[in-house]
Hints:
The structure is a homodimer of 347-residue chains.
Chain A: H1 21-32, H2 40-63, E1 68-73, E2 78-86, E3 91-106, H3 107-114, E4 126-140, E5 147-158, E6 164-176, H4 182-197, H5 203-214, E7 216-217, E8 222-223, E9 228-234, H6 241-253, H7 255-266, H8 273-293, H9 295-301, H10 308-311, E10 318-320, H11 332-341
Antiparallel strand pairs in A: 1-2, 2-3, 3-4, 4-5, 5-6, 6-9, 7-8
Amino acid sequence: GLLIYSMVTDDKPERLDGPSMAEKDALTKRESGITDQSPMRLRMEEFIKQHQKQIVAELEKIDGKPFHIDTWDRPQGGGGISCVLQEGNVFEKAGVNTSVVYGRLPRPAILKMRADHKALDPDVDSLPFFAAGLSLVLHPSNPMAPTVHLNYRYFETADEAGNTNAWWYGGGSDLTPSYLFDEDAIHFHNTIKTACDKHDKSYYPRFKKWCDEYFSNKHRGESRGIGGIFFDDLDNTEKDQEQLFAFVQDCLSAFLPSYIPIIKRRKDMPFTKKEKQWQQIRRGRYVEFNLVHDRGTAFGLNTPGSRVESILMSLPLTARWQYMHSPEKGSREERLVDVLKNPREWV
Amino acid sequence: GLLIYSMVTDDKPERLDGPSMAEKDALTKRESGITDQSPMRLRMEEFIKQHQKQIVAELEKIDGKPFHIDTWDRPQGGGGISCVLQEGNVFEKAGVNTSVVYGRLPRPAILKMRADHKALDPDVDSLPFFAAGLSLVLHPSNPMAPTVHLNYRYFETADEAGNTNAWWYGGGSDLTPSYLFDEDAIHFHNTIKTACDKHDKSYYPRFKKWCDEYFSNKHRGESRGIGGIFFDDLDNTEKDQEQLFAFVQDCLSAFLPSYIPIIKRRKDMPFTKKEKQWQQIRRGRYVEFNLVHDRGTAFGLNTPGSRVESILMSLPLTARWQYMHSPEKGSREERLVDVLKNPREWV
């Protein structure tokens, strides 16, 4: 989900045969502001930054502790805002990041992406690209309250003159409980499904399945959590740009309604030491997925120059690996594992 | 270091054109016992099992809590013994594993291994192979006491008639402190160097460097720990089999003398809550290396049918990821990180 941080593998200055995408966009912003007529790059950037503020404000209300905010600029244009809350009253660790990248995509990445985006020129060494996304991961302290992850991103490549070539959207949101409350799972999936259904009745079933397949700890034969939606490479072969942007906007806008009622219900529930320990074991599985299987994380960590602290913001504050731990027969812990081994339909 | 668990990617029954390596070895054991004239497979197996017992006994004396022992057999021959101690008095988690595998090596693995072992036939779909190794990882509770890792292994391939084709040794041992005591680092390296020097004066410097290069969290530009030795693919282009076996025996025999004095000195030292927390952060880095960079672990987890609990035995019981944690100027924590960023010569 954090792919956008890692795509910057070739940061040579752009060629001097005209203003770069970054320069054009900076000029547009200064001269005309951002309207519905602006390039999608600027509209997406504005949209994710607005939502980052709104989400952070809402989470601060719930936690009572303010987020720590880091911003950074990229020399080639763009930058990021990391909002992190650690050891809060409700959240053990919560990160809400936006990132805007103007960079160059190296040839091996172009060739990989061509599988899904035929418009990419296979005969160049590198291409200008743009990526903007919002990523968040919230790990609550209370073991009855589920971890949640969300990422929505927009990606664009351009020719040397700065004209858009290929573009696509990706993202999703998924829930990872340590203790399963059916009403939470149903509410989370229902809220997302409602957002999807407004745009295409096929989206929720397709993207729910994609999510179950992607967020899987294959080495254990179990899902990371109880899913949600996941999609990637949605471009003009799917729908037009305005339609997809509207879809992504609705998905992101559905986040607070999908999660806030759940965290409110669970954050103050009583729990035992043993239940806290089970949560820690489940956090270990979260780490396993993110470090072993998540394409964005692994690729990012292997990419020189990426911002490691932003990539690994997704890891929980604490985790546990207990040899041969296995839940008691008939316990709530066992029931969770059963559902993780056999993903369910929730709506 | 846990590669041997993961090599078994093709467990079809062996062909029926003669007794398999496993059958031959079982017969030899029954009829003649194991002597200096036995195949290296049996001598290595006996050697690592003896040492596993001795190491476990010594660690139990120090901890006061017994190890939990799991054994398992592999249907094609061979098996494993996992000795694990969790939440002991001295060790938060300690695992000492032996594993003996008779299996078949699939073609992609053969082609990779040919880079170092020209005797491998590139024109077959799979080859019988044998692997035996001992792996251990000890994570003490006290943050002043370092984590230690060791792995020694012997690998062999055969033709369909069960005649040895290629063979090699690999392994090493390395130390990962949260707080650096120079005397510990010097003692650890010195003990290993003495074992190496008996066999070849070039071994310690070569394998010390290899260790620094291998156990590196490249994404953070820092080593996992303060090193030791690491080597792989030592075959008859290096020395003859008896000489290399003697070398590996001396390395493994050097383990207790290299580590026991250190754990005795550190296990009861006073420490603060803040120091415990720093250890937890360092444990997080240990997890990062093992899940992101360690070839054996990653390959194992991506291989169907491997014993996940044995592979992940190397992970600490508890770990921590704290956003943007950075040690105070001039602190002991900062000094450790400096050394991890610039590996030192200790002897």
